[in-house]
Q: What sequence folds into this?
């Protein structure tokens, strides 16, 4: 959080969003909890980037993590949308920072280089989220298919057990006769 009052208010709002989201999650509504968490925390991080920290600030990592979380909790279209909005928002923040002079400008990357590096990280995050999400969905499909096969096998075993019991009863009748 930046040291100014506005930064502290943003941190307080972000913590409040997390607490409310946790309360909704405890109530059993995962979908709305995830949406609230992703949307409002992303908005708080973007406001912080645009107003106080700029593209060299720490909210950038939070943006990347929220894109991951949005893709995993809600879906890939949201992750793409957040990724593109974040790149555009960080570009605007970079343009806003251009007017200020950095104390060691010759030893640091230019603002456009920071924006390019962060944008490539965001695109990498999107790619990784896609791979992880697809892998998870594939694993869930395989588990579902395995469960179906197992259910069929259990059904066959129960039928075989029933037939065995009937054969055993028939054998006892024959012995009795």
A:
């Amino acid at each position: 959080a930046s040291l100014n009052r506005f930064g502290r208010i943003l941190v307080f709002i972000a913590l409040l969003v997390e607490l409310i989201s946790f309360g909704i999650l405890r109530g059993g509504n995962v979908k709305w909890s995830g949406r609230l968490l992703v949307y409002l925390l992303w908005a708080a991080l973007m406001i912080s980037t645009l107003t106080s920290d700029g593209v060299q600030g720490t909210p950038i990592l939070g943006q990347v993590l929220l894109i991951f979380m949005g893709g995993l909790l809600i879906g890939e279209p949201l992750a793409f949308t957040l990724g593109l909005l974040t790149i555009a928002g960080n570009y605007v923040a970079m343009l806003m920072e251009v007017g200020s002079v950095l104390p060691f400008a010759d030893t640091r990357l230019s603002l456009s280089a920071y924006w390019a590096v962060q944008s490539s990280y965001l695109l990498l995050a999107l790619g990784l989220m896609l791979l992880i999400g697809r892998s998870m969905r594939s694993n869930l499909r395989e588990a579902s298919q395995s469960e179906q096969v197992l259910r069929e096998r259990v059904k066959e075993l129960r039928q075989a057990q029933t037939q065995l019991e009937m054969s055993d009863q028939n054998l006892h009748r024959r012995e009795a006769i």
